[in-house]
Hints:
This protein is about 40% helix and about 15% strand. The relative contact order is 0.08.
Amino acid sequence: MVMSGPAVGFRTLFAILVASMTVGACKDDSRFESQAGEYLNWSPEATFVGKEVCGECHKENYESYIRSQMGRSYKKASYSNSDADWDNPDPVHDPTLDLWYQPFRRGEDLFVKEYRLRDGDTTFARVERIDYIVGSGQHTNSHVHEENGYLYQVPVTYYTQDGHWSLAPGFANNNARFLRPMRDECVNCHNAKPTFVPGSENRFEHVPEGIDCEQCHGPGSIHVEAIRSGKVVDITKEIDYTIVNPGKLSPELQNDLCSRCHLQAAEVIHPGLAPRDYKPGTPLSTFQNLYWPRQPDSTESFVMAFHPDRMRMSACYTETWAPGSTLWKMTCVSCHNPHEAVDTIDDAHWNAICMSCHVPLQKPCTEPEVAAGRETAACFTCHMPTSGTSDIPHVRITDHYIRVPDEATGRKSPTGEEAKRFLRLANLVEMDPPPANRAEGFMTYYELVTDRPGMLDSASVLLGRARRADPEADFSRSLIRLWFLRGDWPSIRSHVRENPDADLEDAWTLYRVGEAFAQFGETGPALAYVERAVALAPLNVRFLDRLGVLRTEAGDVERAVETFDRLLSLNPKFEQTWTNRGYARLLLGDFAGAEADYRQAMALDPDAELAMAGLASLYLNTGRIEEARALAMELLRRRPGETDYVRLFEAAR
């Protein structure tokens, strides 16, 4: 097998000077010289310039790229930008929550209406604007709602291959409605570098439109300055260290670059780093590890963004990477030109790539119909079969595990539940990661994918191994995360009391410790820890809401209302806070304010049971008996026999 090098059809890139440049404009080129082969745009001083600046010189690649799938991966929501049916779509039903979703448009503006029916009548309705579209439309258009910079996924997705609307991936079993946060790690792979707001979970100052040049090449400011200063490198002979050229990277680093986003598993980013800190051209192992299960069936069960892992299973890959092999190592760009849209490339192009290896070695296709010339299907039709995925419904992708079909070899793959049986959690980046890192992988997988307690048992064993190997190290953050996921509140409380010097200065760790004390009714310590969490993450609305609740429980009700006020000024759609502020206002005797808050909670969430119960109690105690009775009847309809609701109904009769 002979690999052809970087992708067939790649065009040679030449650095050119901008029109205003004068010869000899820069006499000192030293600041553009690399030390020990390091790229200068790894420097903290390097900044992002945007793909439009890249397009000034690299016009052909720019114009092709913005039409590609990556170039169209994220955009402002509009009817013109959408691939979905907005003119006559069927509503989508969530049978678990008994909610309906109706996508609709008003001119160019896109919306979704959430509603509930009872006996044919609408008992609840809420409309939210769609602000961004995620996905090029090759497989899906998913949708994002923005609330004052906070990004949340919308519950419905349009599946373009089947041409229909349905619940978004992951929402069928866990419909977060309009409160599933689009975190930094999500937006960083679906887009160019966004401006994440520190101290928040999912707030952004600016979100670009589409993955851009600098996601793969790194920030461009130093390169642009060099070109405009007259520093030109003949990249056919040399490496221009002012910017990363993936085509000049080693095969290992090329695959690492693609794997950063095309290998979406349970990620464990190394301490001190954030999702936006990955530098193209550096080993992925210096940034993160990625974990995913291995199962008896290697062909049937896999997730969508898993292309590099599937490729590594292929003989095409293993033969070229075998020790002692003199063949060109296969990488993602052996076949793919990232600047081009895959749906614009004909079958002959892909066949030529396959034949560049197989014909010279006399390995033509042995399929009888093809050998006889009666069948002209592309090689990938059989050897990279189109398949569904285990994580995203209603999509079909080209499987990058290149293989001879099972029916041709007589192999029989496991099916059904046996195919999905958990064997081990594999690290897809490092061969032998440290036990503590593996423990984090098990916990992340538990949080993202499954609630099987065995995941946490494995994490516990690994943390025990790590502590025995390094008894002086502080594993407090990992231990507290494990105990939090298990609901083991006594262990958290004992640990922080017995280890006063433990490293807890992480917002999530402090929040988890606060929750442990709250479970024991120890409001004072709980409040102290959550206050410290909010000091580190003052824009995390989840932390702010918990802080307000604890201040209410501690009797500091006026400060609690101030906390809730701040939260709702940041994000007025954070539903539970309206209920919590309503209760605090009730304690202060502000009945009108409490009623308004309870009503707003119910307007946002048809299942805001605490708001409903609070409002019924308020009505009862202010002499509005009929209104109290109506709410009590609704509460009993939802939860027949509930003691508190029975008493409420009896009092309102």
